Amino acid sequence: MSLISVTGVRHVRGAASSLRRDPVVAAASGVLAVLVLLALLAPVIAPYPPGRIDLYAIDQLPSSAHLFGTDSLGRDIFSRTLYGARLSLLGPALVTLAASALGGATALVAAWYGGRLEQALLRALDILMAFPGLLYAVLAVVAFGTGLLAPAIALSIAYAPYIARVVHAVAASERRLPYIESLQLLGFPPSRTIGVHLLRNLRTTIVAQTTINFGYALLDLAALSFIGLGVQPPTAEWGLMVGDSSSALLNGSPQESIAAGGAIVLTVVAVNLLGERLAARAGRSSRS
Amino acid sequence: MVATAPHFLTAPRFRGGRKAAQLAGRWVGFPLLTLFIASVVLFVAVAMQPGDPVTQILGSRATKAAYRVEQHKLGLDRPLIVQYWHWIHGAVHGSFGDSLVYKQSVSSLIWPRLTVTLGLVAYAGVLIVLFGVGLGVAGGVRRRFGPVVAVLSGIGVAVPGFLAAQVLIAVFAVRLGWFPVLGSGSGIADRINHLTLPSVALAIASVAYVAQISRTAVADAAGRPHAETARGRGLPGHLVTRRHVLRNASIPIATVSGLAVASLFAGAVVVEQAFGLGGVGSLLVQSVADKDSNTVLAVGLILVAVFIVTTTLLDLLRYLLDPRMRKGARR
What we know:
The complex is a heterodimer of chains A (288) and B (331).
Chain A: H1 2-21, H2 23-40, H3 42-45, H4 77-113, H5 115-128, H6 133-144, H7 149-175, H8 178-185, H9 190-226, H10 238-244, H11 246-250, H12 255-287
Helix pairs in contact in A: 1-9, 1-12, 2-4, 2-12, 4-5, 4-7, 4-9, 4-12, 5-7, 6-7, 7-9, 9-10, 9-12, 10-12
Chain B: H1 7-10, H2 17-48, H3 53-58, H4 64-74, H5 80-92, H6 106-141, H7 146-156, H8 161-175, H9 188-222, H10 225-232, H11 237-262, H12 264-275, H13 280-290, H14 293-321, H15 323-326
Helix pairs in contact in B: 2-14, 6-7, 6-9, 6-11, 6-12, 7-9, 8-9, 8-12, 9-11, 9-12, 10-11, 11-14, 12-13, 13-14
């Protein structure tokens, strides 16, 4: 058994080591690592509590007291951006992990059993894919109210088909390779064959698509809180901060828009670059 | 429904009969099924909505008798499936009941707003085709532009519509005063003027995305063996590009541009809100916040229907464009 799966593993290891040498991948993962670290350490780093209002210091430009300035309620924008990173990164992380689990499992079942079940599952995925994710999230808000959880669950379902399609395509061709048959002949139960061997060879594909979904999830969740149907004020969250900053921006205080908007764009660019490289790698290793 | 397909589709004498039935399923049956499922999900979501429309109308101090009368008037005392049937029957005939908040028929709320949203989406669609495809093809054909287009589009796809909206308002409407800040304008020229900034905000991410895909599609097609051969045989570069590269690249480009245009309907919800445009998107957000169930149902169904119709037409178009698909290479 170890002999059989060795080739698959080596593919992935080879891919991983050449990815590590790629400067774009290094820069993107570096940026993301710093962002995650800042989010985790927000209580330690942030100079002010994110909700502390100071009406004597509203709409201030960046200074030594307020690194990114203050917003229209005198709250410290630097602190809010740090705390905002927590929800703004946690939300998409929940969405993409759930979507990958759901979509990946569906795809594996479809590819493994084939036949009518496969056709039915693929059709169901087509139907799910027929609408943009944001509409699902709005519907979830109708049924369960505003917040993070309901839209996150809705987006997980909406994003599942995107990962399922990709995983299914690779899994279906992988399924026909001799190593799967050998494992079956050796008497391994499907759960083990799928869970250990097939999944290991699909790893790069799944990671790549999950990364790509992350950027979209971040944008959708931020848009939702911007239109007032997501996380509610006074929570610190990037989409909400952009929404809050409208009037300050018109009065010549762009600091909150720049901080929150910049954080969104920076994160999504980094995630997309990483996802693109991973996807290219996954495509190459599954083709060779 | 499928079993009673019209005679001309099932008659064995017609050689393409089986194929035609398949195609009818793809462009009529499947979209209708999707729309039906969507309508059920939509209805259930609205029915699950916390809060009670009767209390919303009468207030919490209404007598039990008055409550029952109003409940009966709204049809809420009937089983859910009967309510669904009543709603979808009305919807098919263009009647969505009255808005609980505005006290007028939902249709009269929707139609004027729909023209704003369709105008916005159409305008943004034009921008996507002009600039997205234009930049992408330029970047793919002219190697020197390639990296520039790649970097710009890489940043562009990460700019959310609401952020673009905010920056455009601050710069072009307030600081420079070139465009109006709010509203959707009246008359065609005024409408275009009012919709320019919103369309740009709506289109930016999609323009960037389409440019990305077009660039790789063109570069990919240019590197294929048949293009190399044509060049090797001494065919002038512009002819190779026009006849052998762009024609091949046009199929993925058309697909992606189409999907980008269709998904503008979701983006419009956000951008309309940012610009205070009275379109169906902002009506949806407002009615969700107000728990105005009839309006939520109607706008939700119309958005979904428009989306399904657009994607179906695109699929049809792609089928007509690409002879390989007619040979049944796919599906």
